[in-house]
Amino acid sequence: AQRVTQPEKLLSVFKGAPVELKCNYSYSGSPELFWYVQYSRQRLQLLLRHISRESIKGFTADLNKGETSFHLKKPFAQEEDSAMYYCALLTGTASKLTFGTGTRLQVTL
Amino acid sequence: EPEVTQTPSHQVTQMGQEVILRCVPISNHLYFYWYRQILGQKVEFLVSFYNNEISEKSEIFDDQFSVERPDGSNFTLKIRSTKLEDSAMYFCASRSLAGGTDTQYFGPGTRLTVL
């Protein structure tokens, strides 16, 4: 069965420091992976998807099939990046999302 | 920008009562989903709905749950006889097949509290 693992519940970094939020997946098929972000009191929003290979708000994520990882990175953290980040794997004909447990990113001054 | 909406934002009910959670997906979307998140746990898939029928459901989605698209805009989740463990945040999502995109857009959620 498919599985998404985010090993860190909380990641605390200083403003301007690099950020790496870890995500590993387990899936027998061809993976399609996403990062969703949830700012305080707001809905889940798509941050980026591996297929588009774009950078959103300075964040990037590269799919590494050998390590079955899709880590989210940003070179310089900003205060407004503080939020919950969820890694998700798309599977099935109905394209359901399997989420990781999420990592809370806290950016402090 | 169009958004998925959900009502109510918070529902409190007694154990054993029926609840209906409502969602209005984005208007040109064709796939609809319900997910739930128990406090402190991950977001879990419940059910997907396409072409007026369930396309996939999880083990959580037992006979107590049902979904319906009663008209052209609403998408509802009914829990027939609520249990304490149904207390959770319930998220509706929708996606369009236009352009082959698989992005799911989420509503703000309904917090269900079962007493």
Q: Would you kindly provide a written description of the structure presented here, covering whatever features stand out?
A:
The complex is a heterodimer of chains A (109) and B (115). Chain A is mainly β and 109 residues long. Chain A contains no helices and eleven strands. In chain A, the strands form three sheets. In chain A, strands 2, 5, 6, 9, 10 and 11 form a six-stranded mixed beta sheet that branches. A three-stranded antiparallel beta sheet of chain A has the order 3-8-7, with no helix packed on it. The mean pLDDT of chain A is 92. Chain B has 115 residues and is mainly beta. Chain B is globular and about 40 Å long. The mean pLDDT of chain B is 92.
Features:
heterodimer, A: 109 residues, three-stranded antiparallel beta sheet, globular, B: 115 residues, mainly beta, four-stranded antiparallel beta sheet, 0% helix
